[in-house]
Amino acid sequence: MVATPAMPSMTDAQVAAVKGDWEKIKGSGVEILYFFLNKFPGNFPMFKKLGNDLAAAKGTAEFKDQADKIIAFLQGVIEKLGSDMGGAKALLNQLGTSHKAMGITKDQFDQFRQALTELLGNLGFGGNIGAWNATVDLMFHVIFNALDGTPV
């Protein structure tokens, strides 16, 4: 079982690094979702509207739509880093509550972290992994508390 991370204190430099990287990768939603589902195929059945074949699903409008939803969510959180923690927490609590209702677990969220950090390294953003891990810890602190029924 994955533990709920402590709420990190992010430095201005970490926030700037994540926001800078994000500007370069936010158009890669299909690749991010595909990398996650390919690395952890046990999660693919959760996306029922995508069918049974991940490779075939990747090129569909439904796959792009799902990827766009993930990117839009991350965009909403990342743009609030360093300036609107209340707004970021509201988005994260909402996601945690909705994903709890779908039966999504902390382990599945952690698998997304593993895939994201590996992909960031593959794309040349490995130098900022510490900042990304702080960002994900912040996100997971709020999301995991919501999954546990104790939103922060």
Automatic annotation (TrEMBL):
Q: Which GO terms describe its molecular function?
A: heme binding; metal ion binding; oxygen binding; oxygen carrier activity
What is one term from the GO cellular component aspect held by the record? Answer: extracellular region
Keywords on record: Heme, Iron, Metal-binding, Oxygen transport, Transport
Query: What is the residue range of the signal peptide feature?
Result: none
Q: Where is the Globin domain?
A: 9-148
Q: Which family does it belong to?
A: Belongs to the globin family.
Q: Would you tell me the protein name for this molecule? A: Globin domain-containing protein
Q: Which organism is it from?
A: Chironomus riparius
